[in-house]
Design brief:
Layout: E1 2-6, H1 17-41, H2 50-58, E2 61-71, E3 79-88, H3 91-103, H4 109-115, E4 119-121, E5 124-135, E6 141-146, H5 151-164, H6 166-233, H7 236-261, H8 268-290
Antiparallel strand pairs: 1-6, 2-3, 3-5, 4-5, 5-6
Helix pairs in contact: 1-2, 1-5, 3-5, 3-6, 6-8, 7-8
Protein name: Lysozyme inhibitor LprI N-terminal domain-containing protein
C-alpha cells in the first residue's frame, strides 16, 4: 500500500510529522478499502452504511511511538521504519463490536487482539509496526509504504466489520434463535405426542392384562366349584382312598402351570392369567375323570392324569 504527500523540509525521517501524517492517512485508507472489499465479497454478512464506516475510521486515534530508523541501502533515500503503533478504539465502537462478536460466538475484541499478538491497555492496543518512507529526488514529495497484510490492519478490519454489521448480525441472530426455538417447540410437541401415545399403549396394555386376569380368576373359581361338587358326590370310601393322591396331584398341577406361565409375558397380570387358565383346564379335565367314579359299582377307581 502506497500513499504520497508533500514534504516541507525536503528531507524525510521515519518519525517526522509528515511521515506520521502519511502513515495515519495510509492506515485509514487501507482500512476503508479492506473493509469495503471484505463486506462486499461476503454478501451474506449484510450491508453497511459507508458514511458510518468513514466516521468510525476517522474516530480512530493512531499514533507512532518509539520510532526506529534503518537504511536498507546507504545510497538510497528510502528508509525502513519500525515503531510501536498505538490504536485507540472509540468506546462505542469497541462495545458494539464486542456485542456483535458475542452474538456470533466469535470471541471478544480482546481475544481478537491476542490472536494478532497485540497488547491492550484500556481501549488502546499496541503492536510493532513496519513501514517505509522515501522522498522524491527533488524532495518535493514524500511516499509512505506499508504491508497491506499487517496484523494491525487485520485486527482493525475485523473489529470495525463487527461494529458496522452489528444490526444485521443481531437481526440474523434473532431470526436464527426464533428458528431454533420453533424447531425445539416442534420437537417437544413430537416428544410429548409420542409420550402420550406410549402412555395410551401402556394403559391399554395394563388394562388387557387386568381383564385377562379377572376372567381367568372367574373361570378358575368355577372349575374349583365343579371339582368340589364332583368330589363330594363320590362315595366316602373312594374319597378316603383318593385323598392323598389328590393332594399330590394338586401340588403337581400348580407347579406345572406356574412353570408354563413363567416368562411368557412382561405383565405379571398376564402371567398369572395364563397360570390360572392352565389350572382351570387341568382341574376341569380332572373333574371329568373323577365324575366317572360317581355312582360307579366297579372296584376300579379312576383318577386324574396329565
Amino acid at each position: 500500500m502506497l500513499v504520497a504527500g508533500c514534504t516541507n523540509s525536503g528531507f524525510a525521517e521515519c518519525g517526522s510529522p509528515e511521515s506520521k501524517e502519511l502513515i495515519d492517512k495510509l492506515l485509514k485508507e487501507e482500512l476503508e478499502y479492506g473493509i469495503q472489499n471484505q463486506i462486499d465479497a461476503q454478501k451474506e454478512l449484510g450491508s453497511y452504511d459507508s458514511t458510518e464506516l468513514e466516521n468510525a475510521v476517522e474516530r480512530l486515534k493512531i499514533s507512532l511511538n518509539d520510532v526506529r530508523t534503518s537504511r536498507d541501502d546507504p545510497d538510497s533515500q528510502r528508509f525502513s521504519c519500525r515503531a510501536t503503533l498505538a490504536l485507540e478504539l472509540p468506546e462505542t465502537v469497541e462495545k458494539k463490536a464486542n456485542e456483535t462478536r458475542s452474538m456470533a460466538e466469535m470471541g471478544s475484541v480482546r481475544d481478537l487482539a491476542n490472536r494478532y499478538k497485540m497488547k491492550r491497555r484500556g481501549r488502546t492496543y499496541t503492536t510493532e509496526f513496519d513501514y517505509f518512507i522515501q522522498p522524491t529526488d527533488d524532495g518535493e514529495k514524500l511516499f509512505a509504504e506499508m504491508d497491506d497484510d499487517a496484523p494491525a490492519l487485520k485486527f482493525l478490519g475485523e473489529t470495525l466489520a463487527s461494529y458496522l454489521l452489528s444490526d444485521e448480525i443481531r437481526e440474523e441472530k434473532i431470526a436464527e434463535d426464533q428458528a431454533i426455538a420453533a424447531e425445539l417447540a416442534e420437537e417437544r410437541a413430537r416428544e410429548n405426542a409420542q409420550k402420550e401415545r406410549e402412555r395410551e399403549i401402556d394403559s391399554a396394555f395394563a388394562a388387557e392384562g387386568d381383564a385377562a386376569l379377572n376372567a381367568a380368576e372367574v373361570q378358575r373359581k368355577l372349575a374349583s366349584e365343579r371339582i368340589n361338587a364332583v368330589w363330594l358326590a363320590m362315595p366316602a370310601d373312594i374319597q378316603r382312598d383318593l385323598d392323598d393322591l389328590h393332594s399330590a396331584w394338586v401340588k403337581q398341577m400348580k407347579a406345572r402351570c406356574a412353570s408354563e406361565a413363567a416368562g411368557s409375558d412382561e405383565r405379571s397380570s398376564m402371567r398369572k392369567a395364563k397360570e390360572l387358565n392352565c389350572q382351570t383346564r387341568l382341574v376341569r379335565s380332572c373333574a371329568n375323570t373323577l365324575n366317572r367314579n360317581v355312582g360307579s359299582t366297579s372296584s376300579r377307581m379312576r383318577y386324574c392324569r396329565f
